[in-house]
Structure formats: structure tokens, C-alpha cells
Amino acid sequence: MPLQPPTPDSALRAALSRRFGRIVVFSGAGMSADSGIPTFRSGSNGLWQEFDPSRLATPAAWRADPAMVWGWYEWRRGQVAQAAPNPGHLAVARLQQALGASVITQNVDDLHERAGTADVLHLHGSLFAPRCSGCCRPHPPGAAHAKARLRLDPPRCTSCGGDVRPGVVWFGEALDPAVLGEAAQRIAACDLLLVVGTSGVVQPAASLVGLAPADAVVVEVNPEPREPGARPVHHLAMTAASGLPMLAGLLLQPAPGNPPAGA
Ligand code: BJW
Ligand code: ZN
């Protein structure tokens, strides 16, 4: 008998058969894995298997060796610049355009935006928003270094002469309270939460999922099973690139007795 691709089970189909007005997509590194961007903790090419986060993604690492840290982030920015949004990013953009879905990401890439999603909340900052480590002024990103995995001296701030640092949130740094607060509000008001491609181990981002109202439907799209949490979650064991287009298809088809989405 031929192997059937996984499909949503009947419980998930039933849960999605109503119309949703406040959809939130909460994404992590697995969202961009199908675009060729490595995750941090999964698969054979997880970044933290090859690189030591304490030497690259902390304020102490930056103080100890800014050239190593800047070079590593420039290499990653180059990887992202060469990548393209995958069908999962495109499905999320369709959900926003047709149903007003809101997107909260832990990712520092710009693939949601390049797929056509607007107003993305980046909890952990962006590879494309470097800023001065002294006066915090934004600094325009230069041409990306696709092949460099080299030490690179960071550019100097034109205002104060300080080192320009990556615009990401490192371990031990606070998330932007305005972004975190807005994310918490959107999730606390959602009726459908799609949790895509995250291991859920990094706080405070991981705890946001628990803010979804008790009657909201929560669907996790992740090829790997995760520890059951405190609340019921539908688990769709598919990649973002295959699971999200399928979910978008279900959500965008007219529910029985309802007009088509967007009508
Ligand atoms: C697929 C797939 C496919 C694969 N399709 N899925 C409470 C308890 C314990 C510790 C803490 C705590 N509170 C705070 C901490 C400390 C720390 C923390 O959480 N540590 C834990 C690791 C233990 N948190 C912090 O330090 C945070 N700051 C903070 O709390 O500050 C407090 C403070 C307050 C006031 C003043 C000062 C301080 C900051 C956290 C910043 C995280 N930064 C990073 C790096 C960003 C920059 C960069 O990119 O380099 O963010 S770490 C890294 O992990 C990155 C990610 O956004 C984040 C989450 O990872 P994610 O997205 O979940 O990826 P993975 O790889 O873990 O998982 C991928 C998943 O995808 C897997 O499940 C796969 O199965 C799946 N997948 N292919 C769909 N095709
Ligand atoms: Zn400056």
C-alpha cells in the first residue's frame, strides 16, 4: 500500500471548521528551515551544535571579541539574503491578507516580510537592523557577506564612534518591552494560534503561548513531537512548508453556512 502523506486528523478538521477573526501565527526557526536557514537546536545542522552560543550570542561574547561576533552575524545575514521565502511563509501572508492574521516571530530573518506579510513582531530583533552599541542609533546594513565565516571588524557609528552591533536579542538581554507587550496582547486576544517550528525552550517567548484564551484553538506545526504542555494543543506533524499551505487551504475554504473568507 502506498504511504499516505500526513493530513490533519478529524479533530483538527472539526476544530478548524468554524470562522476565526483573530488568528495569530507564532513562528520559530523551523519556519525558515525549508528555506535553507538552519535552526538552532534541531536536525544535524542546528547552529548550537556547531557553534557555542556563549561565545556568540551573549553581551559578554560581544565585549570579549566583537570581530568574531560581527563576522558570524554577517555570515548569517548573507545566508538569509540568499534565501527565499518558502510555501509556509507564503501561506502565512495569504492568511494575513484574507483573514487579518497577525504574525509574531522569534526569527531574526526577513522571510515573512519578503513573502508579503506586514507588521511582523520580531521578538528577538533582526539581522537587518544593526545599531550602535554606544548611542543605539540605527546603522544601515551594508552588502551581505554570503561566504564569509570570518572575523570582521564591526563598522563604527558615524555619530559617536562606537562599535555597531547586530540588532538581535542575545541571552541575558531583555526583549523590547513594547514588542513583548504587543505580542502578549495579540495572543491573549486570539481565537486561533498557529505555533510553527519552535522548540519552546527560550523564555520569555515560549511562555507567550500560554496566554492564549482557554477557548482558543491552538495548532502546533512541527515535524517533531513536543512535550505536552498545560493546555490542549492540536499537533500537526508536518513541516512549515507543507503544513501551513494545507492549514491555509482549510481556513480559507468557506465554512458550511458561512460566506467565503474576505466576502
Ligand atoms: C520545523 C522544521 C520545519 C525543524 N518545519 N518545524 C526562564 C527559565 C530558564 C531560563 C530563562 C528563563 N527566562 C529567561 C531565561 C534565560 C534565557 C533562556 O530562555 N534560556 C533557555 C535556553 C534556557 N532567555 C533569555 O536570556 C532572554 N532574555 C531574558 O530573559 O532577559 C531577562 C532580562 C530582563 C531584564 C533585563 C535583562 C534581562 C533572551 C533570549 C534571546 C534568545 N536569542 C536567540 C538568538 C537570537 C539572535 C540570533 O539569531 O543569533 O534567539 S537564541 C535562539 O533561540 C534564537 C531563537 O529565536 C530562539 C528560539 O529558538 P527556536 O525558534 O525555538 O528554534 P529551535 O532551533 O530551538 O527549534 C526549532 C524547532 O523547529 C524544533 O522544534 C524543530 O522540531 C522544528 N522544525 N524543521 C517546522 N521544516
Ligand atoms: Zn553611536
List keywords for this structure.
binds zinc ion, alpha/beta, 8 strands, 6-stranded parallel β-sheet, binds ligand BJW, 263 residues, single chain, two-stranded antiparallel sheet
Q: Would you give an account of this structure?
A:
- The chain is an alpha/beta fold and 263 residues long.
- It is built from nine helices and eight strands.
- It has helices at 10-15, 30-33, 47-50, 59-64, 66-82, 87-99, 111-115, 177-188, 240-252; strands spanning 23-27, 102-105, 121-122, 125-132, 164-168, 192-196, 217-221, 234-236.
- It has a six-stranded parallel beta sheet, sandwiched between helices. Strands 4-5 form a two-stranded antiparallel ribbon.
- α7 (111-115) links the parallel β2 (102-105) and β3.
- α6 (87-99) runs parallel beside α9 (240-252).
- The longest helix is centred in the first third of the chain and has 17 residues, at 66-82.
- The protein is elongated and about 60 Å long.
- The structure holds ligand BJW and zinc ion.
- Ligand BJW binds next to α2.
- Zinc ion binds next to loops.
Topology overview:
Elements: H1 10-15, E1 23-27, H2 30-33, H3 47-50, H4 59-64, H5 66-82, H6 87-99, E2 102-105, H7 111-115, E3 121-122, E4 125-132, E5 164-168, H8 177-188, E6 192-196, E7 217-221, E8 234-236, H9 240-252
Parallel strand pairs: 1-2, 1-6, 2-3, 6-7, 7-8
Antiparallel strand pairs: 4-5
Helix pairs in contact: 6-9
